[in-house]
Design a protein that fits this description.
Length: 364
Protein backbone atom coordinates (compact mmCIF):
# COMPACT_ATOMS: atom_id res chain seq x y z
CA UNK A 1 0.00 0.00 0.00
CA UNK A 2 3.00 2.30 0.26
CA UNK A 3 2.77 3.02 -3.47
CA UNK A 4 -0.74 4.51 -3.09
CA UNK A 5 0.22 7.74 -1.26
CA UNK A 6 3.25 8.04 -3.55
CA UNK A 7 1.04 7.90 -6.65
CA UNK A 8 -1.47 10.27 -5.06
CA UNK A 9 1.20 12.87 -4.33
CA UNK A 10 2.67 12.45 -7.82
CA UNK A 11 -0.75 12.96 -9.46
CA UNK A 12 -1.41 16.17 -7.54
CA UNK A 13 2.15 17.35 -8.28
CA UNK A 14 1.68 16.74 -12.00
CA UNK A 15 -1.58 18.72 -12.02
CA UNK A 16 0.01 21.45 -9.93
CA UNK A 17 2.78 21.79 -12.47
CA UNK A 18 0.32 21.98 -15.35
CA UNK A 19 -1.85 24.64 -13.67
CA UNK A 20 0.65 26.66 -11.65
CA UNK A 21 3.63 27.02 -14.01
CA UNK A 22 1.71 29.87 -15.65
CA UNK A 23 2.27 32.13 -12.63
CA UNK A 24 5.85 32.85 -13.55
CA UNK A 25 5.92 32.55 -17.33
CA UNK A 26 2.61 34.03 -18.54
CA UNK A 27 3.99 37.56 -18.80
CA UNK A 28 6.98 36.31 -20.82
CA UNK A 29 4.64 34.85 -23.43
CA UNK A 30 2.25 37.80 -23.37
CA UNK A 31 5.11 40.25 -23.89
CA UNK A 32 6.68 38.17 -26.65
CA UNK A 33 9.94 37.71 -24.72
CA UNK A 34 9.67 33.92 -25.13
CA UNK A 35 7.32 31.60 -27.02
CA UNK A 36 5.27 28.98 -25.18
CA UNK A 37 7.81 26.20 -25.61
CA UNK A 38 10.81 28.19 -24.34
CA UNK A 39 8.79 29.83 -21.56
CA UNK A 40 7.60 26.42 -20.34
CA UNK A 41 11.18 25.13 -20.43
CA UNK A 42 12.36 28.06 -18.28
CA UNK A 43 9.44 27.64 -15.88
CA UNK A 44 10.03 23.89 -15.64
CA UNK A 45 13.68 24.43 -14.74
CA UNK A 46 12.67 26.85 -11.98
CA UNK A 47 9.96 24.46 -10.80
CA UNK A 48 12.35 21.53 -10.50
CA UNK A 49 14.93 23.61 -8.64
CA UNK A 50 12.34 25.04 -6.24
CA UNK A 51 10.74 21.68 -5.57
CA UNK A 52 14.10 20.04 -4.91
CA UNK A 53 15.17 22.86 -2.58
CA UNK A 54 11.94 22.50 -0.58
CA UNK A 55 13.23 19.20 0.83
CA UNK A 56 15.86 21.16 2.77
CA UNK A 57 14.21 24.55 3.16
CA UNK A 58 10.51 23.90 3.80
CA UNK A 59 10.28 20.85 6.06
CA UNK A 60 8.16 22.66 8.66
CA UNK A 61 5.45 23.29 6.12
CA UNK A 62 4.83 19.55 5.70
CA UNK A 63 3.69 19.14 9.30
CA UNK A 64 1.92 22.49 9.38
CA UNK A 65 -0.08 21.75 6.27
CA UNK A 66 -1.54 18.47 7.57
CA UNK A 67 -2.30 19.80 11.08
CA UNK A 68 -3.54 23.37 10.55
CA UNK A 69 -7.10 22.68 9.42
CA UNK A 70 -8.56 20.31 12.05
CA UNK A 71 -7.93 19.42 15.68
CA UNK A 72 -7.00 15.86 14.72
CA UNK A 73 -4.15 15.19 12.27
CA UNK A 74 -4.65 13.28 9.06
CA UNK A 75 -3.96 9.55 9.02
CA UNK A 76 -2.78 7.29 6.22
CA UNK A 77 -6.05 5.35 5.99
CA UNK A 78 -7.27 4.42 2.48
CA UNK A 79 -10.38 6.55 2.97
CA UNK A 80 -8.26 9.62 3.78
CA UNK A 81 -6.05 9.30 0.73
CA UNK A 82 -8.91 8.38 -1.60
CA UNK A 83 -11.05 11.32 -0.51
CA UNK A 84 -8.40 14.04 -0.56
CA UNK A 85 -6.46 12.98 -3.65
CA UNK A 86 -9.51 12.18 -5.79
CA UNK A 87 -11.40 15.36 -4.93
CA UNK A 88 -8.44 17.69 -5.46
CA UNK A 89 -7.30 15.87 -8.62
CA UNK A 90 -10.73 15.90 -10.27
CA UNK A 91 -11.10 19.65 -9.72
CA UNK A 92 -7.59 20.42 -10.94
CA UNK A 93 -8.11 18.30 -14.06
CA UNK A 94 -11.31 20.18 -14.93
CA UNK A 95 -9.99 23.71 -14.38
CA UNK A 96 -6.65 23.01 -16.04
CA UNK A 97 -8.44 21.63 -19.12
CA UNK A 98 -10.55 24.80 -19.17
CA UNK A 99 -7.42 26.93 -18.79
CA UNK A 100 -8.50 28.48 -15.48
CA UNK A 101 -5.79 29.28 -12.89
CA UNK A 102 -6.76 28.09 -9.41
CA UNK A 103 -4.88 27.42 -6.19
CA UNK A 104 -3.69 23.85 -5.68
CA UNK A 105 -3.34 24.67 -1.99
CA UNK A 106 -7.00 25.66 -1.73
CA UNK A 107 -8.00 22.52 -3.63
CA UNK A 108 -6.17 20.29 -1.13
CA UNK A 109 -7.35 22.28 1.90
CA UNK A 110 -10.96 22.07 0.69
CA UNK A 111 -10.61 18.32 0.25
CA UNK A 112 -9.08 17.96 3.74
CA UNK A 113 -11.93 19.94 5.29
CA UNK A 114 -14.53 17.84 3.47
CA UNK A 115 -12.97 14.65 4.78
CA UNK A 116 -12.80 15.95 8.36
CA UNK A 117 -16.45 17.06 8.24
CA UNK A 118 -17.48 13.47 7.57
CA UNK A 119 -14.84 11.81 9.74
CA UNK A 120 -14.81 14.09 12.78
CA UNK A 121 -17.63 16.60 12.47
CA UNK A 122 -17.99 20.37 12.23
CA UNK A 123 -16.51 21.06 15.66
CA UNK A 124 -13.21 19.41 14.72
CA UNK A 125 -12.46 22.01 12.03
CA UNK A 126 -10.16 24.87 13.05
CA UNK A 127 -12.21 27.60 11.39
CA UNK A 128 -10.04 30.39 12.81
CA UNK A 129 -6.96 29.02 11.04
CA UNK A 130 -8.89 28.64 7.82
CA UNK A 131 -10.18 32.21 7.99
CA UNK A 132 -6.69 33.61 8.66
CA UNK A 133 -4.76 31.45 6.19
CA UNK A 134 -7.29 31.02 3.39
CA UNK A 135 -10.24 33.42 3.36
CA UNK A 136 -8.48 36.68 4.26
CA UNK A 137 -5.61 36.17 1.78
CA UNK A 138 -8.15 35.21 -0.90
CA UNK A 139 -9.98 38.48 -0.27
CA UNK A 140 -7.09 40.93 0.11
CA UNK A 141 -4.05 39.60 -1.78
CA UNK A 142 -5.51 40.12 -5.29
CA UNK A 143 -6.54 43.67 -4.37
CA UNK A 144 -3.11 44.52 -2.95
CA UNK A 145 -1.45 43.01 -6.03
CA UNK A 146 -3.74 45.03 -8.28
CA UNK A 147 -2.81 48.32 -6.60
CA UNK A 148 0.92 47.51 -6.50
CA UNK A 149 1.14 46.46 -10.16
CA UNK A 150 -0.87 49.52 -11.20
CA UNK A 151 1.61 51.73 -9.31
CA UNK A 152 4.67 50.02 -10.77
CA UNK A 153 3.27 50.26 -14.27
CA UNK A 154 2.67 53.99 -13.91
CA UNK A 155 6.26 54.39 -12.67
CA UNK A 156 7.63 52.43 -15.62
CA UNK A 157 5.71 54.58 -18.09
CA UNK A 158 8.24 57.35 -17.49
CA UNK A 159 11.06 54.97 -18.48
CA UNK A 160 9.38 53.79 -21.65
CA UNK A 161 11.24 56.16 -23.97
CA UNK A 162 14.56 55.49 -22.26
CA UNK A 163 14.44 51.66 -22.61
CA UNK A 164 17.21 51.47 -19.98
CA UNK A 165 20.21 49.18 -20.29
CA UNK A 166 23.21 48.72 -18.00
CA UNK A 167 26.04 47.94 -20.43
CA UNK A 168 29.77 47.34 -20.29
CA UNK A 169 31.94 47.31 -23.37
CA UNK A 170 34.74 48.87 -25.38
CA UNK A 171 34.28 52.59 -25.94
CA UNK A 172 33.70 53.53 -29.58
CA UNK A 173 36.27 55.77 -31.28
CA UNK A 174 33.60 58.01 -32.76
CA UNK A 175 30.92 59.02 -30.27
CA UNK A 176 27.50 60.05 -31.49
CA UNK A 177 26.69 63.46 -29.89
CA UNK A 178 23.03 62.50 -29.51
CA UNK A 179 24.00 59.24 -27.82
CA UNK A 180 26.30 61.14 -25.45
CA UNK A 181 23.38 63.32 -24.46
CA UNK A 182 21.39 60.24 -23.41
CA UNK A 183 24.15 58.70 -21.34
CA UNK A 184 23.37 58.76 -17.64
CA UNK A 185 26.68 57.41 -16.30
CA UNK A 186 30.08 56.75 -17.81
CA UNK A 187 32.94 55.13 -15.89
CA UNK A 188 36.04 54.75 -18.05
CA UNK A 189 38.49 51.98 -17.20
CA UNK A 190 41.19 52.00 -19.85
CA UNK A 191 39.12 51.29 -22.97
CA UNK A 192 36.15 49.78 -21.12
CA UNK A 193 33.14 51.81 -20.03
CA UNK A 194 30.13 51.10 -17.85
CA UNK A 195 27.09 52.90 -19.21
CA UNK A 196 23.59 53.25 -17.83
CA UNK A 197 21.52 54.61 -20.67
CA UNK A 198 19.04 53.57 -23.32
CA UNK A 199 19.72 50.37 -25.21
CA UNK A 200 20.01 52.40 -28.41
CA UNK A 201 22.54 54.79 -26.89
CA UNK A 202 24.59 51.88 -25.54
CA UNK A 203 24.79 50.37 -29.02
CA UNK A 204 26.06 53.67 -30.40
CA UNK A 205 28.41 54.35 -27.50
CA UNK A 206 30.07 50.96 -27.07
CA UNK A 207 31.56 48.17 -29.11
CA UNK A 208 31.15 44.50 -28.14
CA UNK A 209 28.73 45.42 -25.39
CA UNK A 210 27.38 43.12 -22.71
CA UNK A 211 24.24 44.60 -21.18
CA UNK A 212 21.36 43.92 -18.81
CA UNK A 213 18.12 44.93 -20.49
CA UNK A 214 14.46 44.83 -19.49
CA UNK A 215 14.21 41.45 -21.25
CA UNK A 216 16.93 40.03 -19.01
CA UNK A 217 15.24 41.35 -15.88
CA UNK A 218 11.91 39.99 -17.08
CA UNK A 219 13.38 36.52 -17.67
CA UNK A 220 15.15 36.53 -14.30
CA UNK A 221 11.98 37.58 -12.44
CA UNK A 222 9.98 34.82 -14.17
CA UNK A 223 12.58 32.23 -13.20
CA UNK A 224 12.60 33.36 -9.56
CA UNK A 225 8.81 33.22 -9.38
CA UNK A 226 8.88 29.65 -10.73
CA UNK A 227 11.44 28.65 -8.10
CA UNK A 228 9.53 30.34 -5.26
CA UNK A 229 6.19 28.87 -6.34
CA UNK A 230 7.53 25.32 -6.36
CA UNK A 231 9.39 25.89 -3.10
CA UNK A 232 6.06 26.85 -1.55
CA UNK A 233 3.86 24.16 -3.15
CA UNK A 234 6.02 21.03 -3.17
CA UNK A 235 6.04 20.38 0.60
CA UNK A 236 2.26 20.75 0.76
CA UNK A 237 1.87 18.09 -1.91
CA UNK A 238 4.58 15.90 -0.40
CA UNK A 239 2.59 15.92 2.86
CA UNK A 240 0.02 13.66 1.18
CA UNK A 241 2.64 11.04 0.40
CA UNK A 242 4.26 11.40 3.81
CA UNK A 243 1.07 10.26 5.51
CA UNK A 244 2.60 6.81 5.07
CA UNK A 245 6.06 7.87 6.15
CA UNK A 246 6.65 4.65 8.09
CA UNK A 247 7.17 2.81 4.79
CA UNK A 248 8.27 5.61 2.46
CA UNK A 249 11.27 7.85 3.06
CA UNK A 250 11.00 11.60 2.62
CA UNK A 251 13.64 11.75 -0.14
CA UNK A 252 11.61 9.29 -2.22
CA UNK A 253 8.41 11.30 -1.81
CA UNK A 254 10.07 14.63 -2.59
CA UNK A 255 11.85 13.12 -5.60
CA UNK A 256 8.54 11.84 -6.95
CA UNK A 257 6.86 15.20 -6.37
CA UNK A 258 9.72 17.06 -8.05
CA UNK A 259 9.72 14.79 -11.10
CA UNK A 260 5.94 14.83 -11.49
CA UNK A 261 5.71 18.60 -11.02
CA UNK A 262 8.40 19.13 -13.62
CA UNK A 263 6.73 16.83 -16.16
CA UNK A 264 3.35 18.48 -15.60
CA UNK A 265 4.89 21.91 -16.07
CA UNK A 266 6.65 20.95 -19.29
CA UNK A 267 3.85 19.12 -21.08
CA UNK A 268 0.69 20.55 -19.58
CA UNK A 269 1.40 24.19 -18.81
CA UNK A 270 0.18 25.89 -21.99
CA UNK A 271 -3.58 26.01 -21.39
CA UNK A 272 -3.56 28.07 -18.21
CA UNK A 273 -0.57 30.10 -19.39
CA UNK A 274 -2.57 31.10 -22.48
CA UNK A 275 -5.37 32.43 -20.26
CA UNK A 276 -3.07 34.63 -18.17
CA UNK A 277 -0.90 35.67 -21.11
CA UNK A 278 -3.58 36.51 -23.66
CA UNK A 279 -7.10 36.50 -22.26
CA UNK A 280 -7.05 39.01 -19.37
CA UNK A 281 -5.30 42.01 -20.91
CA UNK A 282 -2.67 42.59 -23.61
CA UNK A 283 0.83 42.37 -22.11
CA UNK A 284 4.04 44.00 -23.27
CA UNK A 285 7.53 43.93 -21.78
CA UNK A 286 6.92 46.87 -19.46
CA UNK A 287 3.59 45.59 -18.15
CA UNK A 288 4.92 42.06 -17.82
CA UNK A 289 7.88 43.19 -15.76
CA UNK A 290 5.54 45.29 -13.59
CA UNK A 291 3.38 42.24 -12.90
CA UNK A 292 6.34 39.98 -12.14
CA UNK A 293 7.91 42.50 -9.77
CA UNK A 294 4.56 42.75 -7.98
CA UNK A 295 4.32 38.98 -7.63
CA UNK A 296 7.91 38.70 -6.39
CA UNK A 297 7.65 41.55 -3.89
CA UNK A 298 4.27 40.57 -2.49
CA UNK A 299 4.78 36.82 -2.22
CA UNK A 300 8.30 37.02 -0.79
CA UNK A 301 7.43 39.93 1.51
CA UNK A 302 4.38 38.19 2.95
CA UNK A 303 6.36 34.97 3.38
CA UNK A 304 8.98 36.81 5.45
CA UNK A 305 6.20 38.30 7.58
CA UNK A 306 4.52 34.92 8.00
CA UNK A 307 1.43 36.05 6.08
CA UNK A 308 0.02 33.35 3.77
CA UNK A 309 -0.88 34.45 0.26
CA UNK A 310 -1.64 32.47 -2.88
CA UNK A 311 0.64 33.02 -5.87
CA UNK A 312 -2.40 32.28 -8.03
CA UNK A 313 -4.42 35.16 -6.62
CA UNK A 314 -1.45 37.55 -6.56
CA UNK A 315 -0.70 36.81 -10.22
CA UNK A 316 -4.30 37.33 -11.28
CA UNK A 317 -4.56 40.59 -9.35
CA UNK A 318 -1.24 41.86 -10.73
CA UNK A 319 -2.24 41.23 -14.35
CA UNK A 320 -5.62 42.89 -13.85
CA UNK A 321 -3.84 45.84 -12.24
CA UNK A 322 -1.64 46.49 -15.26
CA UNK A 323 -4.72 46.17 -17.46
CA UNK A 324 -6.58 48.82 -15.46
CA UNK A 325 -3.50 51.08 -15.60
CA UNK A 326 -3.72 51.00 -19.39
CA UNK A 327 -7.48 51.63 -19.28
CA UNK A 328 -10.39 49.53 -18.06
CA UNK A 329 -11.44 48.78 -21.64
CA UNK A 330 -8.22 46.82 -22.13
CA UNK A 331 -9.30 44.26 -19.50
CA UNK A 332 -11.42 41.31 -20.64
CA UNK A 333 -13.78 41.36 -17.70
CA UNK A 334 -15.72 38.23 -18.62
CA UNK A 335 -12.55 36.16 -18.29
CA UNK A 336 -11.71 37.89 -14.98
CA UNK A 337 -15.22 37.10 -13.71
CA UNK A 338 -14.85 33.42 -14.61
CA UNK A 339 -11.46 33.21 -12.86
CA UNK A 340 -12.74 34.87 -9.68
CA UNK A 341 -15.76 32.55 -9.62
CA UNK A 342 -13.42 29.56 -9.91
CA UNK A 343 -11.36 30.89 -7.00
CA UNK A 344 -14.48 31.25 -4.84
CA UNK A 345 -15.86 27.76 -5.53
CA UNK A 346 -12.57 25.82 -5.38
CA UNK A 347 -12.74 25.00 -1.68
CA UNK A 348 -16.51 24.28 -1.55
CA UNK A 349 -16.38 22.05 -4.63
CA UNK A 350 -13.34 20.10 -3.42
CA UNK A 351 -14.83 19.87 0.06
CA UNK A 352 -18.12 18.51 -1.25
CA UNK A 353 -16.40 15.98 -3.51
CA UNK A 354 -14.16 14.82 -0.67
CA UNK A 355 -17.06 14.58 1.77
CA UNK A 356 -19.08 12.41 -0.62
CA UNK A 357 -16.14 10.12 -1.31
CA UNK A 358 -15.29 9.89 2.40
CA UNK A 359 -18.92 9.13 3.30
CA UNK A 360 -18.96 6.21 0.88
CA UNK A 361 -15.45 4.97 1.68
CA UNK A 362 -15.91 4.99 5.46
CA UNK A 363 -19.01 2.85 5.13
CA UNK A 364 -17.58 0.19 2.86
Amino acid sequence: MAIVPLLGAALIAFLNGANDISRGIATLVGAGVRNYRKACQLGTLGTIIGSALSFWLAQRMVETFTKSWASQPLTSSPATLLSIVTAAALWLIVVTWLGIPVSTTHSIVGAIIGFHLVHGGWEKILWGNIAAKVFLPLLFSPLIALVLSWSLYRAFVTLDRVNPCLCIGETADQLNPEAQGEVIALVPARRLSLVLSSAQACRQFLRHQVGITADHLHLFSAFLISVARALNDAPKIAAIGLLAQSSLSQPVIFAAVTLAMGIGSLIGGRRVTKTLAEKITPIDNRTGLSANLTISLLVSGCANLGLPVSTTHVTGGAIVGIGIAKGTKSVYWKVVRDIVMAWCVTMPVCGLLSAVIAFVALRL
